[in-house]
Design brief:
single chain, about 525 residues, alpha+beta, Aspartate Aminotransferase, domain 2, Aspartate Aminotransferase, domain 1, Molybdopterin biosynthesis moea protein, domain 2, 14 helices, about 20% strand
Length: about 525
């Protein structure tokens, strides 16, 4: 029988012998192999002229390359395959062993490494699970890669609806009770869904109750296939508080309770989002028999680049080892720092303009089958009188702090394992300074008698001077000037006592114009909500 092109991990009996000095969970076979070839001065007649920096040795821009990537990165980025290092699509050596160790660590039957991100992992998984003409029930909140893949597979897709957390929180997520009702109804009508797709750990910090959801699906239709996109929760497997809601742990629980169910489950993890992996490093875990594993291997061959990044793949090996040996300790710190952030926001009067949304008071209804991710802190900044977009830009430009997500008046802080105590202190200091500056500016731009100069630049002529009243017409003029490209500044009259400029606990946001402003001679932006 001809051996198929496959990256199906080997059984333990077929695995290569442990490398000298490495045993069990302390082994990183792929990282060791990549490091070994990086240390050799190998000249390639194949591809990748940049490897070892050979093509830039006499280049005028060599310093830029080395400043960005370093000599070690250039040496590790190699194009060797087959017996020289390993075959990506039919691994026999260190990659195969690294994938086997990862499957053991995560609790999967098989694990595949990808260097092109979880968008590719989702396409691979759906190609393996969803046959043309089959019926698919998909969580509407899934990543775009899922929607695009389903559209190309020739399947009959039904979307389960989404719902909003509540009026005080902008997060949305899948309506899981409705999804399960739709699934059971289809089974009862004799037209069951063959595949279900779930987005179980969201960007915004919503986690699904996967033990309940997967148990319900298996009870109604035991042979269903399920794709669980846990892109943002790869590291959760390695902490006792976070592990119970993970997909692979849920399947383990099902197996202990009912034996090995025929349920086939694929789980995708963006390792770089929560673990110490390079960007685009992704795991695809599979719970399923040999046929399911072979279909997945064939789908990987169809969708993954034939030029994988060996540094990215090696980082998946290293990230798994760190998560197994240090993950609980690192996540303990993340959970503690997230609690500290919430506590400081709720108790420090210098942070009274901020309001943490959850985990207390949000997503507490077990009937929703969702809960908060405690490592994410969603913060309402509306009382500052500036837009969330302006707030993000200020943090980045002035304090070298980056927050990726904004939703309405809220921004999301992800307290991942790379955030330490010093980083949190930097954030808290920045938040206090921003509140002190911007709340004062917002208070200056409210209706009533002003004790500030309000100046449009250009041309630099005051719109109001201290003692003049601000009315809707003046505020409208400020908005119009801002829209035309002017910057708006507020400058406190030098004879006014600083105490007179202390803002109210929550300024009237309707009176805050969309304009940059200056308070106490400091340039700051302000925005009408």
């Amino acid at each position: 029988m001809t051996e198929p092109t496959s990256s199906t991990p080997a059984s333990e009996d077929d695995a290569p012998a442990p490398l000298p000095g490495r045993h069990g969970a302390s082994r990183t076979p792929l990282a060791d192999a990549v490091l070994a070839v990086a240390r050799r001065d190998i000249a390639s007649f194949h591809a990748l002229p940049l490897s070892h920096g050979r093509s830039i040795r006499d280049s005028r821009i060599r310093e830029s390359y080395e400043a960005l990537f370093g000599a070690a990165q250039l040496a590790a980025d190699v194009s060797y395959s087959g017996t020289m290092l390993d075959s990506f699509f039919r691994p026999r050596g260190p990659l195969r062993e690294a994938q086997r160790l990862s499957a053991e660590g995560f609790g999967a039957d098989a694990t595949f490494f990808l260097s092109t991100g979880t968008s590719t992992a989702n396409r691979v998984a759906l190609t393996a699970l969803a046959r043309p003409g089959s019926r698919v029930l998909a969580d509407r909140s899934c990543h775009q890669s899922v929607h695009f893949a389903l559209g190309a597979l020739g399947v009959d897709v039904t979307y389960a609806p989404m719902q909003r957390c509540c009026t005080g929180c902008p997060r949305t997520f899948g309506d899981l009770p409705r999804l399960l009702e739709m699934f059971r109804t289809a089974v009862a009508e004799g037209q069951p869904y063959d595949t279900v797709v779930l987005s179980a750990v969201s960007y915004d910090g919503v986690r699904y109750d996967l033990p309940t959801v997967l148990a319900e699906l298996a009870a109604a239709h035991p042979t269903v296939s399920v794709l669980v996109d846990e892109a943002w929760g790869a590291v959760h497997r390695f902490h006792p508080r976070l592990r119970p809601l993970t997909a692979l742990h849920a399947v383990e629980t099902l197996r202990r309770a009912k034996g090995t169910p025929p349920l086939t489950v694929a789980v995708t993890h963006s390792a770089h989002k929560s673990m110490s992996a390079l960007r685009q490093g992704s795991y695809l875990h599979l719970i399923g028999d040999g046929e399911a594993q072979e279909r997945t291997a064939q789908a990987l061959f169809q969708h993954h680049t034939t030029s994988p990044s060996w540094p990215v793949l090696a980082s998946l090996d290293l990230a798994r080892l760190q998560a197994e040996t240090e993950g609980e300790q690192l996540l303990d710190r993340s959970l503690r720092l997230a609690r500290t952030l919430r506590t400081e926001l709720s108790t420090d009067p210098r942070l009274s303009a901020y309001r943490a949304l959850g985990p207390e008071g949000h997503l507490t209804d077990p009937a929703l089958l969702v809960s908060d991710d405690p490592t994410r802190v969603l913060v309402d900044i509306g009382a500052l009188g500036i837009t969330a977009a302006d707030f993000r830009r200020i943090l980045f430009d002035e304090y070298a702090l980056y927050v990726a997500r904004e939703s309405g008046d809220a921004v999301l802080f992800h307290v991942h394992i790379g955030v330490d105590e010093a980083t949190l202190l930097r954030l808290l200091d920045a938040l206090r300074t921003i509140q002190r500056t911007y709340r004062t500016a917002s208070a200056a731009l409210t209706q009533g008698t002003s004790d500030h100069f309000i100046i449009a630049y250009p041309p630099g002529i005051p719109i109001t001077v201290p003692g003049e009243r601000l009315c809707d017409r003046t505020l409208g003029e400020i908005d119009a000037l801002r829209s035309s490209g002017c910057e708006i500044y507020t400058l406190q009259h030098p004879t006014v006592s600083p105490a007179a400029s202390v803002p109210p606990a929550r300024p009237a946001v309707s009176a805050v114009p969309t304009a940059p402003a200056v308070s106490a001679a400091t340039a700051v932006p302000a925005g009408r909500k």
